[in-house]
């Protein structure tokens, strides 16, 4: 004869006191991050939570801006998660570890491998270079890529000048320009010299988006003057 179903009353069921808050925070994080694969992202979320690691969570919801035809799944918010909450404390990151974090954010692995093909490396990569490559995938130009980089690296509040150290800006600009045959070393050096003049005037060693675009306009004016002279 089969045993009757076990019956419980409310007093017999123990609910861990921390469970409601864990579920509440998880739900809020999932809504902000909008993962493409909730189960895969959840595995990464709770794995990081159990180890006390930074969580793969966006600061806020991002509205999609790419078309279905060109959408890579990568966004500035996801790059910021990798930088600010995952990899920013390391100069170099192991590719295996970075690949797992990439998967936890439900990003296509083929896009990860495509990024690495731009700068061949074996087991690890300098984090700032990978971040720069990610920014270049977001934007169709070097200018757009650098804008994304400033907005990710800055400690300024959202909507502010997005300032970062000039040395960091120059390092990344040199790096990305070296991957593009359309940029000559002399052109890059001239631009950065023009830009450094505007930041040195403030004696801060920092560059914001306004300085960045001022430098671009100054260089364009210089090139126009040279063309007229010839």
From TrEMBL:
<dbReference type="GO" id="GO:0030317">
    <property type="term" value="P:flagellated sperm motility"/>
</dbReference>
<dbReference type="GO" id="GO:0042802">
    <property type="term" value="F:identical protein binding"/>
</dbReference>
<protein>
    <recommendedName>
        <fullName>Ropporin-1-like protein</fullName>
    </recommendedName>
</protein>
<dbReference type="InterPro" id="IPR047844">
    <property type="entry name" value="ROP_DD"/>
</dbReference>
<dbReference type="GO" id="GO:0031514">
    <property type="term" value="C:motile cilium"/>
</dbReference>
<comment type="similarity">
    <text>Belongs to the ropporin family.</text>
</comment>
<dbReference type="GO" id="GO:0001534">
    <property type="term" value="C:radial spoke"/>
</dbReference>
<keyword id="KW-0966">Cell projection</keyword>
<dbReference type="GO" id="GO:0005654">
    <property type="term" value="C:nucleoplasm"/>
</dbReference>
<dbReference type="GO" id="GO:0048240">
    <property type="term" value="P:sperm capacitation"/>
</dbReference>
<keyword id="KW-0969">Cilium</keyword>
<keyword id="KW-0282">Flagellum</keyword>
């Amino acid at each position: 004869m089969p045993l009757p179903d076990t019956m419980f009353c409310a007093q017999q069921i123990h609910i861990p006191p921390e469970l409601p808050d864990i579920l509440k925070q998880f739900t809020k994080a999932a809504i902000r991050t909008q993962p493409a694969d909730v189960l895969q992202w959840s595995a990464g979320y709770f794995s990081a939570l159990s180890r006390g690691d930074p969580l793969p969570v966006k600061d806020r919801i991002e509205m999609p801006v790419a078309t279905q035809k060109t959408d890579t799944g990568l966004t500035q918010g996801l790059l910021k998660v990798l930088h600010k909450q995952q990899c920013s404390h390391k100069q170099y990151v192991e590719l295996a570890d970075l690949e797992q974090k990439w998967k936890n954010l439900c990003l296509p692995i083929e896009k990860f491998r495509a990024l690495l093909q731009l700068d061949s490396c074996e087991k690890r990569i300098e984090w700032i270079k990978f971040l720069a490559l990610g920014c270049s995938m977001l934007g169709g130009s070097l200018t757009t890529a650098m804008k994304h980089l400033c907005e990710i690296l800055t400690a300024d509040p959202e909507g502010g000048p997005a300032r970062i150290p000039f040395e960091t800006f120059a390092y990344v600009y040199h790096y990305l320009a070296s991957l593009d045959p359309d940029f000559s070393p002399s052109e890059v050096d001239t631009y950065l010299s023009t830009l450094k003049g505007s930041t040195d005037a403030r004696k801060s060693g920092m560059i914001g988006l306004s300085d960045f675009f001022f430098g671009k306009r100054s260089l364009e004016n210089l090139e126009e003057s040279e063309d007229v002279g010839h």
